[in-house]
Amino acid sequence: MFDELAAQSVGEFVADFPVLSGSQPVYEALGVLQRAELMSFPVKLEKGYGVLQAHSMLKVKSPDTKIGLFAKRVPALTQDTSVGVAAKLMVEHRVQVLPIVEEGEIIGVLRADRVLSGVLKRGAKGLSITDIMTSNPITIEANDTLGKAVKLFTENKIDHLPVLSKGRVAGMVKSKDVLLLLLSPGEKLTQGGWGLEALSQKRMPVGGITVGAVASGVNEDYSEALKRVLESRSTYTLVVLGEELQGIVTLRDFLKPLAEHQSTVELPIQISGLSDDMLADGAIKQKLRRLAIYATKTIPSVFEIRARVKKVGPSGKAFEVNLQLYTPKKTVNLSDTGYDILKVFDKIERRLKQSIKQELNPPKKRFPKRMQ
Q: Given CA atoms 51, 54, 57, 63 in this order, what sign does their dihedral have?
């Protein structure tokens, strides 16, 4: 059912989307967020790429804060990345968008709603909405304050809070709506309203900004609920039995069946310095793919892999390959040189395996024997 779509390349789903730099201030990001349908957007960081999410921006104390401080590091895709791999990465990293990169520059994004439109066109028979819902979601009462909502959003890293009144669904409040109310990108910033005005607004009851919730019955199937979400340009649906809340399904949850068709994830390698002919070479592609699979399996925290190739030597016929693997804590750098680029990649792969083996099995410390 999902196999055909999972095998397609994300290049067919590339969408234009505002891209900000990590050095830009938060108040510039607010304007972009206000116009965007989704609650996150890509950010070009000093090293790598990120996604800025509405709930993380609720931690901001000043409009001049650089957005890179709050962006979540994510892997970048290439146009050749399969939709199945991309869906799995979105689910694992809990994001609605991922940047698509070419030669180190973001050329577009992959949006969860675009991919799900492809799912809807192909149909998804036999799946119930309850198969993918998150049961017992975090909720808030209509008479609770916006301050409490902010705390729930930031502590739980979520963007949707179902609002209840006397145990029944009263509506929905989203992190994006709270953010734009407290940190308005309009006149409030120029008038210094970031602090005191926002503080007074945090005492407001949540019911004041609650909107009607998109909802699906417990007996609805996957396609029926997804169609309602996409047609209403929503990012979620509540699952209800009468007026009682049973669960919630976000765009990320709708991606789960597609992601499950991808048993392994190989991160796309961002490669530069190779000619088009060499990039099209099947043997080189296979070497890169094998490197990516091994790195992803053995270093689960790796979120980006880059390879830079350049010709060196007096005649310019030798190849120097530099491989960088980025993890949240460190960057692994490996490089080698040779006249046969395939053999260079082989040597780098062996060095990577050796490096990981040493890290997993560090040499035991030797202590001098005690004198009798």
A: positive
Residues in the chain: 372
- Mean pLDDT, rounded, for 183-211: 61
Task: Measure Cα distances from 252 to 164, 264, 294, 295 in Å.
Answer: 23, 18, 26, 25
Mean pLDDT computed over 106-128: 88
Query: In this structure, are residues 312 and 319 in contact, taking their beta carbons and an 8 Å threshold?
Result: yes
Give CA angle at 101 (305, 159), nearest 5°.
Answer: 90
Tell me the residue type at 309: V
Rounded to two decimals, the pTM is 0.75
Give the whole-angstrom CA distance, residue 70 versus residue 163: 27
- Contact 279/265 with Cβ under 8 angstroms? no
Q: Give ranges for CATH 3.10.580.10 in the chain.
A: 3-123, 129-258
Phi, psi at 290, each rounded to 5°: -65, -40
Run of H or E including 309: strand 304-312
Write out the residue limits of the CATH 3.30.160.100 domain(s) in the chain: 269-360
The CATH code of the domain at 269-360 is 3.30.160.100
Q: Using the 8-state DSSP alphabet, how is residue 313 labeled?
A: S
Question: What is the model's pLDDT at position 360?
Answer: 59
Residues 6+ apart with CB under 8 A from 115: 5, 13, 83, 86, 87, 255, 258
Q: Tell me the average pLDDT across 99-110.
A: 86
Residue 48 CA: distances (Å) to CA of 42, 75, 134? 11, 8, 31
Closest to 142 measured CA to CA, from 178, 166, 116, 117: 166
Mean pLDDT of 176-202: 60
Question: How do residues 55-74 score in pLDDT, each as one tens digit?
Answer: 998 888 777 889 888 888 88
Whether the CB-CB separation of 5 and 114 falls below 8 Å is answered with: no
User: Between residues 202 and 213, which one has the greater pLDDT?
Assistant: 213
